# Entry
Amino acid sequence: MFRKILRSIFQLPLTFLQELGNISRMFLQVTYLSFRRPFKLDYIFKQMEFIGVRSMLVVVITGTFTGMVLALQSSYGFRKFGAEGLVGAIVALSMTRELGPVLTSLMVTGRAGSSMAAELGTMRVTEQIDALTVMALNPVKYLIVPRVVASFLMLPVLTIISDLLGIVGGYIIGVKLLGINEGAFINKIEKTLDLPDIYNGLVKAAVFGIILSVISCYKGYYTRGGAEGVGRATTEAVVLSSVTILISDYVLTSIMF
Amino acid sequence: MDRKKISSEVWVGVVVLIGILSLFYMSMRIGKFGTLHRQGYEIKVTLDNANGLDPRSPIQIAGVEVGKVSAIKLDGYKALILLRVKDGVKIPVDSKAAVKTQGVLGDKYIEIIPGVGQTYLAGGDRINDIITVPDFGEIFTQVNVAAKNFGDTMSEFKGIIGEQEKISIKKSIDNIQVVSGDFKNLVSANKNNITRIVTNMEAISKDIEAGKGTIGKLVKDDTLYNDAKDVVASLKNISGDIEQGKGTLGKLAKDETLYDEAKDAIGNIKELTDGMKKGEGTLGKLAKDDSLYKETEKAMKKIQKGAEGLQEMTPITILGTIFGTFF
# Structure
């Protein structure tokens, strides 16, 4: 009994380190392979459609409503000391620097990351991945690289759309609904927002794209134990991706801004 | 299958296009696409403290933005601010610059107060006249100090006033009340007189205004002034003449012959006196040789004696004279 507890206590960090090492290995492998011929553009575009285009609706809704609620909340706060003109600046800065990239990545994780893990997990469980290996096709090159490249490319695109829609949502709520001075609202945005705010947000989004796709694919790729294993892999993929995105968001923000 | 592939790429293309357009639109709206550089001309301002100023802080004239701060550098231990001003905005050389704060939250900007000169600053020139506006921190510090001083003064004042003083202050106030009451009575009793005085004053001031009477003339008539002016002009002429050596005074002031002659004369006098000192000449002998003095003394003594003799003889002489007249 005690030995068991002691063993699991020692086992926990060991498992964690093993996981970290495996994910890093997967990441390096993908990075290496994505610069190697043949470039499977068809696969990449298919994944871009799946990850980017199919996530549009979710991202549009998330971005717009985040901007709207930000305007609502911050105008409540700013009204207390009569600085409602700053609502626009707050919405724009929060969206471009933080909420645009992070919320988009989390939504894509929930929608596409989970599906990646489930798809690869099912392929693993039904031994399709083994079949690819038998046919001398590198499953990482064929299955994972297109997903990672597609995420890396599409996340910034989704993020910039989310940024703009968030600001538009904030404008609708702030100016049209709450009657904040339109000139002050827009001028403050233009004065406060800098290009680096937007670009760094997009860099963050691209990094999050790599993180979520690598982790989701890793979890699916190494699925064990039938249908139950696929379900567990999907859950773990979403949880680990989201947590990693939020942690790395802090690190990236402190480095970039 | 073939149709499906094309459609997937088209969809991706649409989304990417939307993304790029959004990015482009936002970048353009922010308007910081490097348009700051290479437009307009640059002038310099040196400030003691550039706290709160950023590159891209606005420059305003009369509240209208005319440019942006392009760089902030350290120049010695002062802040050198480079201002990029739009072409077509001419800033006179005698303009002043001030760092001002916009709103309560303290966005700093540079206000240029244009001068009236007709020459304008060119690129690389410097605005030297800086108006320092104390920032909120300084103002609060000063207000704080002032408030503390005021508080100290009040507490000291409180300490001074004891019961005794309170009573005397009260008495003083009572006295003032009585006096003002008296004054009121006085005024109401002499209302007519005061009115008359005021009327007279009015009439007098009217007369002065009209130039009547001596004071009026003094105030209004400019002949005196003109006379004085003429006198001054004449004096000016005279002094001019003197300056040029005209007339007696001018000669006195300017011509050197008189001076030379005077010098010669003084030289002669000096020679004479020197001679006298040595006992040369008559005057010198007079002054120096005492034989004449002794002679004179002797002679005087003799004369004295003679006079004494005469005195003794006088009555006889008088008698003789009388007899002479009768006979």
Remarks:
- Residues 41-136 of chain B form one domain.
